[in-house]
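User: Okay, second chain of the day. Same drill as before: sequence in, structure tokens out.
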Amino acid sequence: MVGTQTATGAQTEQTSTPKEFKNYINGKWQPAKSGKTFQSINPANPADIVGIFPASDKQDVDEAVAAAKKAYEDWRLYPAPKRAEILFRAGQIFIERKEELARELTREMGKVLAEARGDVQEVIDMVFYAAGEGRRLFGQTTPSELRNKFAMSVRVPLGVIGCITPWNFPMAIPSWKIAPALVCGNTIVFKPASDTPLVATRFVEILEEAGLPPGVLNLVTGGGSAVGDAMLENPEIKLISFTGSCDVGRHVNEKCAPSFKRVSLEMGGKNATIVLDDANLDLAVDGILWGAFGTAGQRCTATSRVIVQKGIYPQLREKLLERAKSLKLGYGLDANVDVGPVINESSLKKIEKYVQIGQEEGAKLLFGGQRAPEAGPGWFFQPTIFDEVKPNMRIAQEEIFGPVTALIPVSDLKEALHVANDIEFGLSTAIYTKDVNKAFEAVRDLESGLTYVNAPTIGAEVHLPFGGTKNTGNGHREAAEACLDIFTEWKTVYIDYSDKLQRAQIDIE
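Assistant: Same drill. Structure tokens below.
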């Protein structure tokens, strides 16, 4: 592999005999009713089998839903502060086991250890944040228009929630859904991605250890068609909270529509970083490198487009190229590694396909663009930079979900904003400039759910709403107080203590 360094010294933490894991239903660990299983594979070394997991189907889902429905009748009556205490205990356990969990996460998902620690830290942050809502969950009180009448609104839980989560943040994203859903009084059926069932199992084990009652949280592993579709079709599940691709999100929406099942969708992105002529160039390069190649580009917020004003374009290109060449690929448990593998062979082939498409469209391959077998036996791909990309090219419009970014030259801020917005997604954007007026203009005009000034497109914090516009989602937001609106129903309450019939809008003195 020319240019990019590799680090192959670290050995994968494989065991000779893979452990077999089970579903968690109604407080018990049990195999799939069919007896079928599947393997979770270390993407840095496919010979390393992380574990063997139940290949579940509709029978297992229906049992889990029935358990969640039964548990809901008591769980919803737990005082919210008591529900929160269980989450606080879980948070403490996550803190104690952070390093152990991070190492397992790196082995199963592939991200480097520093990022895996960040994934677990986000769980800790989200669990504690959601637990804090146990003593809030605020409604409103408001004066009535009539005498001797009290008016208020309160939040009530929905019932059984279905959580379907991806592999790229296999602990953090489940926490965004599960922690607030629990503190609001819902019960859950949880289907993790088939690439990362081990860390999902650890997540559930910790909540069980923290004292979560049987049936409140149920784990069912398996494929999307067998497990996911059974969840979408089960009438007792009141809401599906899904994070994943647009194609699967569209399927989720369509399957839930006939029964009016609620759906919260968090899907793709094609995120842009704008760099203006007056930017701190070294800071911008730092942000682009982290945003584009962190997690091997496998983030919905990854920097897959770099929109650069022409006056600074040559300098930025050279600095970015120099820095990309210094990145080290390899197994993420090696402290010297910057970029780990992509998740599986299918993802790697998709990235290769887009590199070919970019070249066929006339973009210049500045760096990378190939597999990196020198990095190890797993699914490694070189950090890849395309130069002189036109905004309408497919590599500038479609989500690749790998370590690939496209440099797009523009004349001024007006053109940069147009290029940034001229896509079907609207998740995350960034701008580098020292001009406060231009920064605020970008904040106002960029069509995205997240905007960063002088910072990369990645780095969301749990106490602020997370989500996007356009085809990135369906209008909901995860994290922060906004997530409570997903997992609760508003109930308006009127209490008339006048001891007589009073007619709103009519009997007004």
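Residues 334 and 376 are 12 Å apart (CA to CA).

User: Thanks, on to the next one.
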